[in-house]
């Protein structure tokens, strides 16, 4: 079946849908401008017919595209490691760098002790940090 042609049902359905959307827009515009019901419907019908005629007369053109020749490249799939090991020590990380320090293997005993103790309330520290950020932005 030839894709670009007058008898293609997909293209005809697309033209009908596009002209219906255009007719609805024209009808809405005519209705909001205060035209009567009869004039609004007539404007929508005329717009739909005109859009359909214009869309059916537009040539689809040549839909064949010449591609340059190329050679497919085989994919090399690397095997993933079983676990992620963080062995780089970041010397510049301060003691309050929580995300970086959470991967430090030397802090296992400290993490186990903190897990059993109640967590401190940091709401005041958060409020102070937000206030400082607001002052810096002004």
Q: Could you explain the architecture of this structure?
A:
The chain is mainly alpha-helical and 138 residues long. The chain has a domain at 9-57. 53% of the residues lie in helices and 0% in strands. It is built from five helices and no strands. The chain has helices at 9-32, 37-57, 98-101, 108-116, 123-137. Helix 1 runs antiparallel to helix 2. The mean pLDDT is 77.
In short:
The protein has 138 residues and is an all-alpha fold. The protein has helices at residues 9-32, 37-57, 98-101, 108-116, 123-137.
Key features of this structure:
138 residues; mainly alpha; 53% helix; elongated
Q: Please bin the fraction of helical residues.
A: 40-55%
**Number of helical segments with 4 or more residues:** 5
The pLDDT mean sits at 77
Kindly estimate the percentage of residues that lie in beta strands according to DSSP.
under 5%
- Radius of gyration from the CA trace? 34 Å
Task: Compile the SSE list and pairings.
Blueprint: H1 9-32, H2 37-57, H3 98-101, H4 108-116, H5 123-137
Helix pairs in contact: 1-2
